[in-house]
Amino acid sequence: MPLITVSMYPGRSESQKQEFARAVTESATRILGAGESHVIVVFEENEKNNWYQAGKPL
To answer: pTM of this prediction?
Structure first.
């Protein structure tokens, strides 16, 4: 069962997340051979002040 976690800043609409989840699910079924009902997509929305790259805030 593929569990796909997407980390991003808050602010995307529900319809954007649904469209993205559908596209990821379609890709997982095609590439990984997973059944559609076995693909789980989780969105983790974290404020920008929680993101760092090379030890520096984004």
So the answer is: 0.85
Q: Which domain holds residue 23?
A: 3-57
Question: Residue 57, class by beta-carbon neighbours within 10 Å (0-12 exposed, 13-18 middle, 19+ buried)?
Answer: exposed
Going by pLDDT thresholds of 50, 70 and 90, the confidence category of residue 18 is very high
Domain total in the chain: 1
CATH code of residue 26: 3.30.429.10
29 in Cβ contact with 36 (< 8 Å): yes
